[in-house]
UniProtKB/TrEMBL annotation:
Keyword match NAD: no
Name of one Pfam family that matches: Phage_integrase
PROSITE patterns named in the record: TYR_RECOMBINASE
Molecular function via GO: DNA binding
Domain Tyr recombinase: 1-99
Protein's name according to its UniProt entry: Tyr recombinase domain-containing protein
Keyword tags: DNA recombination
Phylogenetic lineage: Bacteria, Bacillati, Actinomycetota, Actinomycetes, Streptosporangiales
Coiled coil spans: none
Source species: Nonomuraea zeae
Domain of life according to the entry: Bacteria
InterPro entries attached to this UniProt entry: DNA_brk_join_enz, Integrase-like_cat_sf, Integrase_catalytic
Keyword Isomerase part of the UniProt annotation: no
GO process annotations (BP): DNA integration; DNA recombination
Length: 99
């Protein structure tokens, strides 16, 4: 489920192009890891929630494991992640009770 505030953000801020960035920097380009952590105040948000050890990149693993669990093919995942090789995509696959 996508929270309503994110739906509003996407409707107002994300380009309708096939590939659009959800989070952008001051110049409209995608945010690199270090810039994202600084701009989004990632560390502050984690502290406020009392969460330790969560890395933003870990969400990429979680998201793609959940998509695979819902039935996406390896080809779907490769396209979603922008990978050219099966091997790179399989790094993001983690065992789950359903898979």
């Amino acid at each position: 489920m996508i929270v309503p505030v994110l739906v509003e953000h996407l409707a107002a801020c994300v380009d309708e192009a096939e590939v659009a960035f959800v989070f952008v920097g001051k110049l409209g380009a995608f945010l690199r890891g270090r810039n994202f952590r600084r701009e989004a105040k990632w560390g502050d948000a984690l502290k406020e929630m009392g969460v330790q050890g969560l890395r933003f990149h870990g969400l990429r693993h979680t998201g793609n494991t959940l998509v695979a669990q819902s039935g996406a093919s390896l080809a779907d995942l490769k396209a979603r992640m922008g990978h050219d090789s099966d091997r790179a995509t399989l790094i993001y696959q983690h065992a789950t009770p359903k898979r």
